[in-house]
Each structure stands twice: as structure tokens, then as C-alpha cells.
Amino acid sequence: MRLSIAGGIRELAAATPTTVALVDGDRRLTYRGLDDRSSRLANALLAAGLRPGERVALLLGNRMEYPGGRGA
Fold first, then answer.
1. Vertex 62 angle, CA 59 and 67, to 5°
2. In the chain, N or C: fewer CB atoms in 10 Å?
3. Does residue 68 carry a pLDDT above 60?
């Protein structure tokens, strides 16, 4: 099996969905929430014409809003 960050997030979301994955000040995001946001971002990129295997570069700040969507 090929390892990936996305696969790891999916596995953690399935195994421990309520475990905190991200902390931004007093806000928390669980692995279930991170998996949901990541999936929404991936689907938006596919809808925009990107295909699996194509590369994407992102330059983002260190904030909870950035992994795929709006804040908690």
C-alpha cells in the first residue's frame, strides 16, 4: 500500500474521529473534521479540472481556516 498524508488522515478519522488533529488558539478540529475539509478541498480541485497525480502548490498561513475550508 502506498502511504500518503491524505490516507493517514482518512485512517485516523476512521479509527479516532473525535481525537483533536489541529489546535488554533482556543479552537480545535478533530480528525473527522479535518478529513471532511480535506475531502471538500480535493473535490473542489477536481471540479476545477485538476486530475489525480497533478501537482498543486499552496502558500498558506498557519491558521485553522486553511486546511480545506472555514473555521470551526
1. 75
2. N
3. no
